[in-house]
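Action item from last meeting closed. Structure (309 res):
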């Protein structure tokens, strides 16, 4: 059991565990402030992947790897094109990659300020760069998740609040809401892992400089599966070019849900958590979706709603 105790970055509040094997600093592993959203996981090989704020102010968010036998790595510091005031939601260890799901201010949105939901991923065998991107991920990419009510002008549920992954089906359920300053509304969308991977294999969205438009750019490594260099001065580094890794982070295409219409939509309520159970019916499988909600008219209360599809 690996857990965070109170006391800022130093464990000080653990008193009810029967045996504590070791204590380590919580810096870069859990947030300084309980109001900062974070997520973390430990892989079967012992690496800890954490997405959290690295400082008291919350101005230095990072996806950070520590422990285990691989070198510690993080996303680039103070670079809004990597992470732009993110709220981390969840993380999953899937195949060659560690996936992170979060929402952040959309750096590519030129007209005003808005929040987009993201799927991000890194290669688990990434060891960082050499001379360039040292101690930094060379395989970090991110893409937008779309959950919207279709129409001539779609109604977007832009803010991801929770996810639930069904590994046997490679299917991710997500709950999305409108912004807190907007009309309260929530929706449930589902995404195939193959659809997410397809977007990561597609073109990037790239901005030459701050005055340039965001344009699509061909992916130099389509179908990238975390291959590494076998020889030479860059041995064991991933096959992704380091200069490309600095510039190309955001995917051009948007991850679309399994069906164009959300499975479930509700106005005047905000979903906060989701869980899914797969139940065998007489002739088919049913997905029972449990939703925790925070009604707008009575803040602080929660209900659980079960629906099936």
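Sequence:
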């Amino acid at each position: 059991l690996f857990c965070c105790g109170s006391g800022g970055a130093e464990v000080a509040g653990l008193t009810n565990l029967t045996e504590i094997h070791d204590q380590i600093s919580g810096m870069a592993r859990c947030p300084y402030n309980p109001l900062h959203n974070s997520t973390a996981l430990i892989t079967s090989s012992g690496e800890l992947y954490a997405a959290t704020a690295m400082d008291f102010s919350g101005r230095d968010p990072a996806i950070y790897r520590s422990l285990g036998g691989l070198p510690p790595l993080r996303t680039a510091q103070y670079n809004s094109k990597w992470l732009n005031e993110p709220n981390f939601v969840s993380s999953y260890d899937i195949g060659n990659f560690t996936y992170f799901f979060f929402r952040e201010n959309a750096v590519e949105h030129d007209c005003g300020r808005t929040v987009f939901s993201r799927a991000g991923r890194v290669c688990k065998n990434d060891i960082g760069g050499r001379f360039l991107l040292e101690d930094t991920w060379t395989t970090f990419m991110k893409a937008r998740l779309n959950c919207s009510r279709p129409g001539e002008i779609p109604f977007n549920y832009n803010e991801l609040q929770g996810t639930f992954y069904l590994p046997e089906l490679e299917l991710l359920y997500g709950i999305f809401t409108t912004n807190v300053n907007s009309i309260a509304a929530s929706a449930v969308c589902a995404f195939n892992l193959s659809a997410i991977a397809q977007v990561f294999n597609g073109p990037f969205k790239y901005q030459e400089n701050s005055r340039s438009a965001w344009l699509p750019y061909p992916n130099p490594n389509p179908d990238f599966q975390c291959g590494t260099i076998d020889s030479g001065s860059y041995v064991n580094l991933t096959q992704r070019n380091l200069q490309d890794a600095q510039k190309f982070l955001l995917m051009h295409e948007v991850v679309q849900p399994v069906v164009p219409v959300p499975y479930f939509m509700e106005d005047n309520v905000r979903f906060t958590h989701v869980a899914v159970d797969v139940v065998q019916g007489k002739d088919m499988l049913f997905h029972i979706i449990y939703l925790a909600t925070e009604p707008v008219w009575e803040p602080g209360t929660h209900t659980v709603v079960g629906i099936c599809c």
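Note appended to the action item: The longest strand covers residues 269-280.
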